[in-house]
Amino acid sequence: DVQVLSQGSGWSLARRVVVIARIFGIHLANKSVDTMTSGTRILAHVFAALALLASVGAFYLPGINPNDFEEGAPLEILASKLYSTKDQLPYDYYSVPQCLPSEDVQRGNKVRPHQHLNLGQILSGSRQELTPYEIFMNIGESCKVLCTKNLDQQDVKRLKSKIADDYYVRLNLDNMPGVQTFTNSKGEELYFMGYPLGNVENSGKNQKIYFNNHVEFTVLIHQPKYTATSFYTAADDNAILYRVVGLEVRARSVKHKFQGQNLTSCPVEDGNHERLELADSQMSITFTYDISFVMSEISWATRWDPLLKASPEFKRVQYFSIVNSLLIVLFLTALVAMILLRTVYLDFARYNNLEDREDIQEDSGWKLCHADAFRPPPAMGLLAVLCGTGAQVTMIFISTVFFALLGFLSPANRGGLLTALISLWVLTSSIAGYVSARLYAGMGGESKNSVAIGSSFLFSGTAFCVFFFINAMAVIGGSSEAVPFLTLLFLLLIWFGVSVPLNWVGSIVGGRRKPFDFPTRTASIPREIPRYSPIPPTVFSLLTGILPFGVMFIELVFILNSIWTSEIYYMFGFLFAVFLLLAVTCVEVSIVIAYLLLCNEDYRWWWQSFIASGSSGAFMFGYCIIYLFTTPDFHGIHFSSALIFLGYMLVVSVAMICMTGGIGFNAAFLFVQKIFDSVHID
């Protein structure tokens, strides 16, 4: 049993638990019940209960259940979408002229999805449509004709447009994406998702557009010692089973020539074929493909590792990012420590020394603001809503990274990340309602219903308006990202039917809490604030946001490069480390700003502490604009695609403002309460 367990690569967690339970259960069953200690009896009951799981079957995480194929078994290549960095609207694989599969998987002229799509796949425009490629396990083919398709002038025009916009084709086999492989100057193997639909050659006024009508598939396979279905025993020695561990694709443009019914342009090799140039009128295109199988040492359990493996240079930059962020945090930590240990503690000693009380000047010091330090700020309802939204975004981020680190959001689970974000947004709505209502009620606010409405619709409504605008563009452009009407109704249903009620429940609970017991009383007449600087405090607070932004800057570049070029981002460990450093930076920046304001007898620290750390989100959006116009991949980007990029990044930046601002404000709020609670107030 132990030997089988050690060699059962790709087994689900539940299956391993059952095997372990059986091993220990059999061992404990051989012991006499009378000789067992109480702890051993409990352990025996636990393992016996776990062993019963075998009778009902074990669950597995999406994308981690291996499929075994016998030699000659048919393999299905599925089409995901066409995508481009110039045009951020993805399109259906069959939106351009392609060979169609057999009639039994067609619905008129439209190929239906071969697999059930989750919410994330629908929103991202990803489809899983069957292609007509006929591939059989471990049986190679050379220059096999897929079909010959006649294109009218409109088809050629549409194909030229997509090639000019640098569209790529995404295919996958057994949940493994088709990738192109490259080797850089350092000998490192790099992977690029998908293959180009064609290429453009500019030669003066005579622009030539070539279509890639020949695809070469290289399937990496591995022969396991045990099958996915066998639980204890090895597979039959006579049965040869294989698992798919990779799919490499390479596309070529080939102008095929026929002699009778036979192709004379095959085999296709580098430099020995004429390329297929698209004409300006009707034409005929012959689609062909090669298929080869290569035995690989990569096991099924580690087949995603080459795609997710970071290059040494990439790791060096990531570590540099962490060190850079750590230096900023250490600098701010030293500054805050100096304030707390030298200044604040000296102030405590001076203010609490009754004998020297007469020596204290009455026109300086943060203690003089004791009657105004907890005066409710203007627009405190809006501040409460932003802080509540920030608490919700923080919880969503932490939960997402946690599940990603556990492997639940693996790239093998297509659309899982976006589905998880929407699910968490709905389920954590009560947090936003509770924090907003608690803060507002604690400051003595009376318009609790308006705060509940704000926490329910301010951020969510902004995000939905942006999404609705982009979806309208997708519908007009005929993109596969256009959300179907029923899916749109479903999103509205979970918003108004689940998210809003949960938000109101949290608001009711938070609104019933007692007001905050502040350490000082607030005077009825506000104290006059002396003019202490020609620079308004709001401007100074906005500029301090550059420090939190500097902590996350390099990681932000990696995320943008991954998301907007349709690559895989899976460095969640680095991301969580950067988040911790960012949170510490926000805390320290807001505390310093609040203390400096109070030292200058300015009690308007509420909004300033929020802006000091929250302005990092504004810097983030500013950098996104710079990124849009300076990144080579976005050169020649369409205006509609620029709007899509800026729209989604605006939503992310607003979420970042709420999250960082909320973290900083809560830290400053606790700090101000603590310092005034530590001195004697007459």
From TrEMBL:
Regions crossing the membrane: 42-61, 319-341, 382-409, 415-435, 456-476, 482-505, 539-564, 570-598, 610-630, 642-672
Domain of life: Eukaryota
Bilayer topology term: Multi-pass membrane protein
Coiled-coil intervals: none
GO cellular component: a single term: membrane
InterPro entries registered for this protein in UniProt: EMP70
Keyword terms: Golgi apparatus, Membrane, Signal, Transmembrane, Transmembrane helix
Gene Ontology biological-process annotations: protein localization to membrane
Subcellular location: Golgi apparatus; Membrane
Main subcellular localisation: Golgi
Family: Belongs to the nonaspanin (TM9SF) (TC 9.A.2) family.
Annotated protein name in UniProt: Transmembrane 9 superfamily member
Species of origin: Compsopogon caeruleus
